[in-house]
Structure prediction request, 147 residues.
Amino acid sequence: MTVDMAQVRRYLTTRAAEQRAVPRRGRRNKFGARKVTIDGHTFASTAEGKRYEYLREMQQRGEIRCLRLQPRYLLQPAYVDSRGRQVRRIEYVADFEYIECATGRTVIEDVKGVETQVFLLKKKLFERVFPTLQIKVVKLRRHNTWD
Prediction:
């Protein structure tokens, strides 16, 4: 797998623009997601909150263990470019990480309604940096079922 440097530049430019933009008070999420707090944890969407409740139940039944929320993975460390400018590190923050008890496999999960270009690029970088791990994308469907 190759990483296209043009994609990386577009991502970094988009990321810088996103960080400069200051959200207005009371403004809704671009994709209509609403924040929800469960057990003292704030989730970016109701779907993510429902997935947390589902995984918590799985952990109580002994199907999974070591459930972590918002685990961070370093995709590229910060560095100084040839012009002497500091370039920030690139991180991927998953929604959940857990270990399946039956297989012992580590699962990285991300709850998505929409897979953005930034997510797809970070997913590619993640798979390159961590070849033994895979991101499982889950979506909430009708009647609270998961894809």
